[in-house]
Structure formats: structure tokens, C-alpha cells
Amino acid sequence: MNFLTGFKDRTALVTGGGRGIGRATSILLAQLGTKVAVNYVSNDNAAKQTLIEIKSRGGEAFLIKGDVSKQEDVDRIVKETMEQYQAIDILVNCAGVIGYGAIEEASKSDWDRNIRINMTGTFLMCKAVVPIMKMKHYGKIVNMSSLAGVTAGMSSVHYSASKAGVMGFTRRLAVELAPYGIATNCVAPGMIETDMVSHRLATLEGRKRVEQMHPVGRIGSPHEVACLIAYLASQEAGFIIGETVNINGGRFVG
Length: 254
Ligand SMILES: NC(=O)c1ccc[n+]([C@@H]2O[C@H](COP(=O)([O-])OP(=O)(O)OC[C@H]3O[C@@H](n4cnc5c(N)ncnc54)[C@H](O)[C@@H]3O)[C@@H](O)[C@H]2O)c1
Prior knowledge:
Blueprint: E1 11-15, H1 20-31, E2 35-40, H2 44-56, E3 61-65, H3 71-85, E4 90-93, H4 108-136, E5 139-144, H5 147-150, H6 157-177, E6 182-189, H7 204-213, H8 222-232, E7 244-247
Parallel strand pairs: 1-2, 1-4, 2-3, 4-5, 5-6, 6-7
The structure holds nicotinamide-adenine-dinucleotide.
Nicotinamide-adenine-dinucleotide binds next to helix 1, strand 2 and helix 4.
């Protein structure tokens, strides 16, 4: 008996699935039996590698290029996913960017980029997919916040603001959609070993400093976050609505 159900004969759309947490999530969902539309925006080779990994483990997936912050791309991503799989039961909004620097150094375009991709991208994807889920009276939406949305974080006001925004957005959307059989939640990871933060871990000294910030004494893996996302996307998590689930190696309690 499987501990978690709700993946077989289901379809997922994972944004930012070409690498990092999105890639790990796409691979895991496919392994669990879900057909996965893997969205990516650049780096075709990384996206192809995700697809190769899914197929080599016997999973079903296809790649779909597009920018989640552009309405026309979002419409096309959703249309092509529906043409390919005739359903979107699980939406995982992993696409994201980060920004650094104090407020004096931050340009308006830095601010706009973080808000546009992290927040508006999440809004546009949810808005496009919700009618499809409502028709089926079934859906799981997992958005991506961050420790930086819950605490001050280590990056910038624009990143923190965008990730805190995702939490507020998720709470409100969850209440709107729960009566339609759609569960909406978000996850807030601490430092996870991906390209997004690789520069912070590039030197042994930098890596040690970051590791010591976590009571577990290490950085998280994309697979660990993917497991949490998969749980929230499972049938068994249906009583969890509008939550931000933290996954940060004890940063809050250490
Ligand atoms: N790595 C961490 O420590 C960490 C911690 C907390 C939250 N997060 C969040 O997790 C998510 C995944 O990040 P990651 O760590 O895997 O980093 P990553 O940089 O490896 O992955 C982000 C992905 O989003 C894609 N993307 C960026 N802009 C896009 C757009 N406009 N349209 C479509 N795709 C776009 C990128 O191409 C990339 O594939 C992000 O939302 C990030 O903010 C990461």
C-alpha cells in the first residue's frame, strides 16, 4: 500500500522545472506516477536533462518553454499542457529569481523583476489553472515562498517582499478555492543547494558559515523540498489549506 496517493492518472504543471527544486519536484512527481509538464524559460540543455532523468526512471513528461511573468506565455503553457494531457490537477509554482543588495543599491528594475516573476508569475499561473481545476472539483496548488518571506532573510528587500507576498496570496487563494476541492499551500525553504545560491557556497568558508546557521549543520537538498511539495500535492494532505510549511533545518528553533 502506498503511504501517499493522488498521483496516478494525474497531471502536474511545474514551473521553473528545468533545474533546482523544480527539477527535483518534476522528477519525484513523475516517479510517483504523475504526468508532468515541465516549464522552463532558458537553458534548454538543463531542461532536456530534467526530461532525460524523468524518462530514464520510466516517468512521463514533456517540456514547455515560457516566461511565467508574461500573460501570453502563461496562456500558451496552459493551453499546450491541456492539449498534451487534457488535465492539470497539480500546479507547482517553482519559477523564481533572487536579488541582492541594500535598498540604496537596488534599482526599480531589480524590484520589478522580483515582484514580476516571483509574485505576478505565481498569480498568472494560478489564475489560468484555477478554472480547469474548478471544473474537475479537484486541484493541488503549491506555491514557493522562502525563509526570506518569513524572516528578514539574507538577500534583499525585493526578494523578501516578493516571497512574503506569495504567502499572503496563498492564504487568500486557499480560502477562495477550498470549497471547490482545491488545496492551496506554500512552502518556505531555508538554504537549499541549487544554482540560485551557489555563489554563497562557492568557498569553503562561505559554505561553513551557512551550514553553521542551521542546527542540523548542513544545507537542504532539492529532493527534501520536493518530498514536502509532493506531500502537499497528495490526497492525504487535503486537510492542509492556506499554510506556509517551513523547511529550514531548524533555523527557527536553533
Ligand atoms: N535555493 C534556495 O535556497 C531557496 C530557498 C527558498 C526558496 N527558494 C525558491 O525556490 C524556487 C526554486 O529555486 P531554486 O533554488 O531551485 O533555484 P533555481 O535558480 O535553480 O531555479 C529557479 C528556476 O526558475 C526559472 N525561472 C526564472 N524566471 C522564470 C520565468 N520568468 N519563467 C519561468 N521560469 C523562470 C529559472 O530558469 C530556474 O529554472 C524559487 O522560487 C526560489 O525563490 C529557493
